[in-house]
Design brief:
The complex is a heterodimer. By secondary structure, chain A is of the alpha/beta class. In chain A, helix 4 links the parallel strand 3 and strand 4. Chain A is built from ten helices and nine strands. Chain A is globular and about 55 Å long. In chain A, strands 7-6-5-8-9 form a five-stranded parallel β-sheet, covered by helices on one side. Chain B is mainly β. Chain B folds into two domains: 79 residues, Alpha-Beta Plaits (2-Layer Sandwich), CATH 3.30.70; 34 residues, no CATH class. The N and C termini of chain B lie far apart (34 Å). At the A-B interface, helix 4 and helix 7 of A face loops of B.
Chain lengths: 307, 135
Amino acid sequence: MRSVIDVLDLSVEEIDELIETAEDIIADPDKYAHVCDRKKLATLFFEPSTRTRMSFEAAMYELGGHVISMSEANSSSAAKGESVADTVKTVSNYVDIIAMRHPKEGAALVAANNASIPVINAGDGGHCHPTQTLADLLTIHREKKHFDNLTIGFCGDLKFGRTVHSLCGAMARYPGSKFVLISPEELKLPSYVKRNVLDPAGIQYTQTTDLEDSMENLDILYMTRVQRERFFNEEDYLRLKDRYILTAEKMKKAPESMIVMHPLPRVNEISVAVDDDPRACYFKQVLNGKYMRMALIMKLLKEAGRL
Amino acid sequence: MNIDSIRNGIVIDHISAGKGMKLVSLLELDRDDVSVAIIKNVHSQKMGKKDIIKIDADIPVNLDVIGYVDPDATVNVIKDGVLVEKKTIERPKILTGVIRCKNPRCITTTEQELKHVFCLRDDGYRCMYCETKAE
């Protein structure tokens, strides 16, 4: 049974195909309004989420399907100690496809190994978040019209930021990608990501702690939140959380063609004043995420013979 | 130092010096009720020093464990005092239930009876679930 745990589970050709479908949905949403009639999606969210869960649910509704939702672990059998494996084996009997978020890394793989229906990883701890990356890719495609020869600045928490790791992996597959890694020393991109993702692809990258000086050469600035939930030590979090704040003043130094992306939610790493800048694309990412999730749900249901 | 030859059993030879005890532990030979000789720092022309483990019983030995600890080790099966088989050792691509993931955020820390599985990557073994490198 085909599931998507990591964005790299999808080939470049499959991502192109998903983008093509998403563009077609955007152009003619009515064409897709009944594609998933009588099909059901379960959203199993073992940790809090607003946009990802609602995005999956909106995606399924817009395809004409139905949604059964578990929005917090406390209200489910997980609170009684039920394993992920048992939960998905049970839920597989009720629905056609599962989108699951879980705080533990690798939980989505356990789910996929035990479900009899497709599982989409909606985030497993600090590990992977493939549909966010699909949202990012559609945004880049819509704004830049191509994926080749782009210089992307990743800023903030590059250590625990799963969206950064996933997007690095996805963009490393396109020729001419260059990365500028902007973070405090404590939150640098893990060496295994460099060794396993950047180095084999021959990606040129630079590491710096300075945001402002890095901006002038960027095509894309990908901001991230320092995530409180990834720290064991509150002191470390408080010390690092306000290290990078993108303001309207700093945006004056950025090229006119540079776009600003952020997986959201933001705390204060992007000033609200930046929202009015036409280069701010983070709310477009949210919308693009829904379209890519629609495309992915259709693809996996078709492959599973359920459409 | 002389250790009597075994009649029926297994000799794990050419173990890099210092790895013998780890191998005994991971093979759980210290828990079995069999005679085991652990010979450390034996002179070797080829290796300088090596460790040898002699097991005086024909028990099943997990070759993946040996391949993980020391793929250059050799395994000889002895029957009636005669060498009857030399087993080939390779680094296993998948290592199941041998070592544990130390990442407190990994699903293996909470999921009931989930086996710890490691995959061989370019830089060593990594947890199949969270990609944390084996220590």
